[in-house]
Every structure is written in structure tokens, then in C-alpha cells.
Design goal:
The protein is α+β, with helices and mostly antiparallel strands. Among the domains are: 92 residues, no CATH class; 98 residues, no CATH class; 110 residues, tt1808, chain A (Alpha-Beta Complex), CATH 3.90.1570.40. The protein has 24 helices and 15 strands. The strands form six sheets. A four-stranded antiparallel β-sheet has the order 5-6-8-7. Strands 13-14-15 form a three-stranded antiparallel β-sheet. A two-stranded antiparallel sheet has the order 1-2. A hairpin with a 6-residue loop joins strand 11 and strand 12. The radius of gyration is 36 Å and the shape is elongated. The N and C termini lie far apart (88 Å). InterPro entries: PRP8 (IPR027652), Prp8_U5-snRNA-bd (IPR019581), Prp8_U5-snRNA-bd_sf (IPR042516), Prp8_U6-snRNA-bd (IPR019580), RNaseH-like_sf (IPR012337), RRM_spliceosomal_PrP8 (IPR019582).
Length: 701
Amino acid sequence: MSGKNNVNINFKDMNHINGYGIIRGLQFSSFIFQYYALVVDLLVLGLTRASDIAGPPRMPNEFMQFTDLATEQRHPIRLYCRYVDQVHILFRFTDEEAKDLIQRFLTENPDPNNENIVGYNNKKCWPRDCRMRRIKHDVNLGRAVFWEIQNRLPRSLATMDWDTSFISVYSKDNPNLLFNMCGFEVRILPKIRQQMTVDAGGLGSTGHGEACWKLQNERNKELTATAYLRVDDDGMKKFENRVRQVLMASGSVTFTKIANKWNTCLIGLMTYYREAVIHTENLLDLLVKCENKIQTRIKIGLNSKMPSRFPPVVFYTPKELGGLGMLSMGHILIPQSDLRVSRQTDSGITHFRAGMSHDSDQLIPNLYRYIQSWESEFLDSQRVWAEYALKRQEAQAQNRRLTLEDLEDAWDRGIPRINTLFQKERHTLAYDKGWRVRMEFKQYHVNRNNPFWWTHQRHDGKLWNLNNYRTDMIQALGGVEGILEHTLFKGTYFPTWEGLFWEKASGFEESMRFKKLTNAQKSGLNQIPNRRFTLWWSPTINRANVYVGFQVQLDLTGIFMHGKIPTLKISLIQIFRAHLWQKIHESIVMDMCQVFDQELDALEIDTVQKETIHPRKSYKMNSSCADVLLFASYKWNVSKPSLLTEPRDNFDAQTKTTKYWLDIQLRWGDYDSHDIERYARAKFLDYTTDNMSIYPSPTGC
């Protein structure tokens, strides 16, 4: 397996023989790395301390536990942990030990001008009073510890890099212990060092906000320290690069695919970092920026970036109702501190500023609120697993098996979830040692981004549940009826919305997917769902109240386009091809004539006359003429043009008529213009007063 690493690597006309280091993309490389790193661990710790930490072979110690207090305290190395190639060590020195180490270091590396402070790393993500104060003694101790550990490793085996390492010293001058691990920046502040300064806002720098963990002594449950969390710069960079990758690769991809990629990317970030996200203002800004970019990418696909055409309902509506089902972290209030002060000190939040905003006053639910924080997950997990152990004991005592009813309330809880115990492969999974490190090493040989590299559903269970998010989102967008107002639903003539199923693609798309297609055909297939989406939301996307653009009438129809939206134009022309608009108009006129024919006596009609209609009449909007003419058996009373709901119609005794005409016009409505009665009254007044429209009598509608 190790011989595999000395291979010839070819790329185009270049050739390289790998003679140094591990190629992480090879199978079993994670195992070799772990085995190799075990040698590094032994060299760093020394054999005696290594066996103290590991414990006797027959009864190994738990992770970061010792057999007894004396063993723990007899050596400066108190905790040791290595994550792949990052080593975390906690030393505790007495004054003599520290003095001795610094002296040995300075004898070999004299520092007459106190230059050790220059180039000593610090955690700049924290406010200044929370960073490490670079006092001469502490800096020398940090340098000395690094020098000591570096010398324990032969350079042929491994090297420690000063620039990417950080040594945090906790001393009388430095109350904070700082480190970063697996993408989290952590700052531990012991209770005895907390200055209880509570500012006017309520919670000061010691306030237990959402992004901190209370660290307890397991024995007496005393709160000993607080760990404050942030997301580190690498974690933010990874997220930003993934979103950029999604945007770069979304050339002719469907809108739903772009939204899906954003969703998995966001869930991956939020379920991993959880409460740390809220305390990292830069990341909140980045989330707003990225969510905006994803939406802009979809808008550009429709050739418009106008906010009024794309209210939140278009993006966040679940897929079952024709939306994109996007998840949101951008509609959030970003906590702000007074900038001059916050650079210096952790003074707490003084004000907020809005993330994404929009014209509608809807409050879009925030994904963070639907994911339990890690702290509450851990506490819940302890409780749930303790309960499970009791129930299992009880069941064994009664000589019965545990049933689903026993575990119903704990089924989806705990880390790992209780339900992982009841899957088919549970026995084989027990032998799947080292799966987590293998998951991480997959990135080197699987050519796909995996936002859930840190977990596995079989081992951990599903660590999030977003069912409530969907229902709250529908509620926030105005309920199902409110959402469907924005769509073509009223034009489909469905009696209820419950029959709508959007997830099923049409048979044509499914059958074409597996055929050999040219690139042009593939991109054409991708456009079908986009067209379906655009057509469904066309009443909102092509709305009348748009502050720019000129109304353009589509050929042979009465549809007006407000601005250029090519995909929608193609769809509408396709639907109304072969003079369909004209035919619909004619058939409605015929239907009206038949209805009047059946109701001659009830309506006191003598004869119904269908007027000859010009072929272009149905889509000529600047003038009009009558379609049906009714002759009365007796004279009809006629009122002035009024709205349907007006209670007092004014019927004049003088205005009686024997002729009454009907002018039927087809209009394609949109979200802003569906007030038919006012429109009809306005058109009556327009057409009867202009010079081009000719009607057989002054009375009609």
C-alpha cells in the first residue's frame, strides 16, 4: 500500500515520479496516514506519557481521560488530540518548569532585542481585549513550547510549521485560552476571570448569548468556564468558494437545480456550525451576499433583475406549489456593535442592520431557527441515551423486547440518533471502524462536493428536520391561497389546489433523459422546466406595475408583455399558435348566443343576433365592435354603467331600449390587473366615445 505512493504521475505531456509524501487520493491512504501519524504522536508525547494517556491494554482510558489524578498531574502534557494533521496539546507548567523551558530556549536562540514578539500569531477574529496579549514572558513561553515539540520530530519524518500554528498562553495577564479546531474558532474564558460588566444592552462580554457553551464540572455540575464560538476564516472561504462554483457551473442548468445546490450547501453549513454562525458577523454578511447572487443568477436567466417581478414568494414557495423551495438565511437582522468600540472590546450588540430586504412586508423564516444548537443537542442526547438505557434494562428485566411505542418520543433524538440502533445493517456498521476519517478523505478521490463530509446517515442518523420550516414558510408567504394568487392557478380551472403535483416531470423529459443527446439537445431539455416555472409564475413575472419597459402585444393574441422575457414569450406564442386566441373568442361568442337562446322568455328577448366578426377583432385592442345583439320583446330599463356590487343602480324612465349589444373581449390578466368589472366599465366608456368603434345602439355592455 505504501509502495503505491511512489508512482509515475502523468498529465498531458508532463511526467512526475512521486518520491515524497502520501498521495491522499489513493485507496487506504487514510489508514496509512493514521498509522504513520501514530508514530508522530508517540514521538511528540514520549512513550511514558503516551502509555499514561492510552491506559493499560486490558482497560484503555476513555478519550482524554486518565486512570487517576496522580497520573494526570505528573507531566506537563495534560491533554493531547490530533485531527488528521492538526495537533492540539494542552500543557500545564509550574513556575519552575516554565522558567527552565524558557531558559533552555533562550540559551539556544538568544533574543537581546525582544524580537520574539514580532511575527507571533494572534487570533484577529476576536476583539482586541479577547485576543492573546503578547507579554514578553508569555510569548517566550509560547516560542519555547513550539521549539521543544519541533525538536522532538525528526525532519525526515514530519515538520511543524510556525506560520500556520498558534500557541495560546493562559496566564495572569492572559485570561482567554484561544484555539481553532475543525473550522471552529474557540475562546475559553474561565468563570473566575470573567469581569461581570453588564452593559446597557443587557448582556455584556460575559453574557451567555446563543453562540457559547457553558462548560461544567461533571462531578459537581459547577459552571467553570464559558467557550465562545465563531466560524473560522477557512470555513467561510470554503462556503463562499462552493457558492461561486455553483454559480460558475450553472450555465444552462434548470432553476430548481441551482436552488437545490444552494439548499444542500446551506444545510451543510448550518447543520455543522449551528450557533457559531450567529456570532460570526462576516459569515452573516456572506450568507446575504451569496443568497442574493443565487437569486440574481435565476433572475438573469429570465432577462430581468427587477425586484417587483421577483417577490420572495417566487423563490421560497415549496416545490409542490411550483416554487423553487429555496431555504433562506439572508432575511436576518445582522447584529452590529459600535465600530470604534467593537474593534477594541467585546461590548455586546448595540444595534442591528437588515440583511436581505424586499418590497413585501413578509417575514421570511430563517433556517437557523429550525436547527437545534449543538449545546442543546448534546444535553438532549445525554438525557435520551440515559432514558434508553433505563428502558432497555426494564425490558430485559421483564424479558421482553423494546417496541417502537417505548421509544416514540426519543426516536429522532440523541447523537447518534436512537433510530440508528434499529436498522438492518446495525451489526455490520459496528465493524465499520474509521468511517469518519474515510468520509473526509473521500474528497481526494471522489470528484463531487460533499457538504456532509462530517456525518453519515447510517451511523449518526439524520441530524436535522426541516418539516416545520416548510409549513412556516407557506404561512409567511400568505398561505396556499395567497401563494397561488401569484401564479397561473386561476387559469388552470382546477377546482382546488390539492390536485397540483409539481414534482413529476413530464413523460417526454423522462424518456429523453437516458438517450444519447447532443449538447444542444441537453440544454434544450434543461429549458423545459425553466419554461414551465416561468409560465406558472407569469402573472407575477410579467406584471403590469413595472416601472420601466413598454407594453408590447404578442402577435395574434391579446397578451401584453411588460418588458422582454424571451422564455415566457416563446411559451405563450406556443400555447396560442394556429389562431387559438381568435378561435377561443369565437367559441365564447357562440356559447353566449346559445345561453341567450335557451333563456329567451326569462330575459324577455325576442331574437338573438350574432354579428359578423372581423377575424382580427379578438386581438385588436384600440377599437372594438359588438359581438351579439339582443332584440327585446318589450322595452328594457337601462341604467348607467355601474359595478357589480353597487347597490343603487339608477334606472331612468326615459332611457328604455329594444336593442342591447354585447361586446366580448379576451384579456390575459396578471397579478396587478385582475379587477374585471372596473376594466369593463372603463372600456365601455372608451369604446363608446371614440370615433373608430361602431355599435348598433347606444345601450350595451
